[in-house]
Amino acid sequence: MHIAAYLALVASLLLCLALIGAGAWSAWQGRLSIVDTLEKGHAVQTALITFSSFLLLWAFVNHDFSFKYVRDYSDLVMPLFYTVTAFWAGQAGSLLFWAWTTALFGAVLPMTRGYASLSRETRLYYWLFYYVVMAFFLLLLTNWSNPFIQLVPAPTDGNGLNPLLQNPAMIFHPPLLFMGYAGFTVPACLALAQAVTGDMARLSPRASWLGISRNFNLVSWLLLSAGIILGAWWSYMELGWGGYWAWDPVENASLIPWLTATACLHTGVIESRRGTLRRTNVFLMVLTLLSCFFGTYLVRSGVVDSLHAFGSGGVGSPLLIFILAATAVALWLSATAQRGTPRPLGGLANREGFLIMTAWMLLVLGLVILAGTMWPVFSKLWSPNPVGLDAGFYNRVCLPLFVAVALLLTACPWLGWKSGLRNARLAGLVGVLFLAACAVVWALGYTLPMTVLGAGGASAAVLGIALLFAREPRIRRRRAAWAAYGVHVGLALMVLGVAFSGPYKVEREAVVKAGESFEVGGYTVTYQGLRQGQSPAMVLIEARLQVSRDGKPLGALLPQRRLYSKFPNPYAEASVIPGLGDELYATLLGADDQGHVSLKISVHPLINWIWIGGTLLCLFPFLGLTRFRAREAVEPVRKETPAAAESAVGEPATGEPATGADA
């Protein structure tokens, strides 16, 4: 099995290299008949990678510890769902999963009508770029990160999965991230292909890569969003430190491609309406994909220290070389690509200008986060002791930009595409709502400027969007508008949760014995006793805490301390009493023989609005997806007149882009 799985990857790599060579030679000679061979080759390649992936999955399910990777990340006592998810727990398995999903996304595109409308030349270059990405994955998997190394003799049991990873969020968090990364490969390769052939400038936005890959963009974006949000929730619930975002390098690594992808979605709206920013969107799309690889480089190269990085596994140098080479190619192709005859951009005092400002803010955020993450590396140039930047730096620099984005959410729906306000009276009412929300927040005692502005902007954005839908029935009838504004509502609710939960968190540590009480944030916490438990995988102690406020019982907190049989250090399991206002959060720090326990209790105001908003942000993009159209033998769609192009992708009387790409 080990040899069969590995040889399938080797065969896939050799097939990739052969098709790249044949495709490049055909492109040089101007022969396009090889496109059919490239399409069939990808089907074979997908089958080979699927075969290897299922063999690894079979090994996990059957506890075949002769696989070194299975030995490293599972054992006999793990539940089945954690045994299956151990597939992507380590470096080799996660790379295989990423490559597999990339192949699956690539297999979907040829079945669509949009692909059939592409010129054969564009299809040829698309496959060349796609095969280069796949060949790089397979090169890593067959050389530096092989998941099919055999152990002889086979151990009778494995090392087990890190207890921090044994959490329901970790079942979905990594695969969602990797699927999001994989999905961006399709639009990035399409964008480069049309930049080479010049079809990008000749076709209408609907018929270009932007329109054809629209569903891939939205699906990849929502998958990446869901992965990030679930990762934040996992950090909050599992690590026992009460935080959902510590600006850790691995957390930042997934946020950077999300920021560039979101910026590209906004500038894509402008290209759809004006036929401009074509070269900018090509570069942003490729930059998004390369940011995914750069995040992988941070996690797997050992270049920066992180709480949950994979460490150096030999793949850092190949990743860096690939990223630098691909960036140079993307810069050259996007700079030299034809861009047609775009209409000039308008000023900043309209929706187009606000979309551009939003995109710039998102890119600046990404640049700041990148610089902060890499600062320990940069500081080595002038100091023998590298200096890292703490969360305070990111909060001081990034939070004002996030608040500015929230304020843009408040104003943008009321701006016209050409100039001025769509409805001055209602826009003025939204402005009043913003000021009133700020005043209420200030009156309640929350006086930090970022909290006041963020909460005011988020509240006004939600109320303004509700008002817009109530007054304009044409918007209510359009699924794309629901998708775009639903995402904006979700983001506004997340801003509201962040504005309060971090700055106004209250926490207290206490050492108590049974029957004793203490106060935290206006709540009374009474320690009632300790329970011990045991399972084949661990032993645990659990404290029972009764919580009340003003004499009214609110519920019980049951924090645990766990000691796993194969891991020497104890792990905390937090407990919460959720609420739409305050959420109480308890961590058991330790216990002694005299019956005393050490506890940390936190009160997090409005934190659950982060998860509510994040859920909406991930669900509403589904409404913006277009219906799947099976591939048909159709002629490529060539350039339309400006009027026809605008009617195809632009906005009717409502002022909403039909692409829904505001999301």
Describe it:
The protein contains 24 helices and ten strands. The chain is an alpha+beta fold. It has four domains: 1-166, Four Helix Bundle (Hemerythrin (Met), subunit A) (Up-down Bundle); 171-367, no CATH class; 391-503 and 609-624, no CATH class; 510-608, no CATH class. The strands form two sheets. Strands 2, 3, 4, 5, 6 and 7 form a six-stranded antiparallel beta sheet that branches. The protein has a four-stranded antiparallel beta sheet with strand order 1-10-9-8. A hairpin with a 3-residue loop joins strand 3 (523-534) and strand 4. Helix 2 (35-61) runs parallel beside helix 7 (120-142) and helix 14 (278-301) packs antiparallel against helix 15 (316-336). The protein is globular.
Helix content: 55-70%
Number of helices: 24
Oligomer: single chain
Radius of gyration computed on alpha carbons: 27 Å
Q: How many domains comprise the coordinates?
A: 4
How far the N terminus sits from the C terminus, by CA atoms, comes to 45 Å
Structural class estimated from helices and strands: alpha+beta
- Given as residue ranges, the uncertain stretches (5+ residues, pLDDT < 50) are 633-663
- Strand-residue fraction? 5-15%
Number of strands: 10
Q: Average pLDDT across residues?
A: 86
Main beta sheet strand tally, sense and closure: 6 strands, antiparallel
Which outline best applies? globular
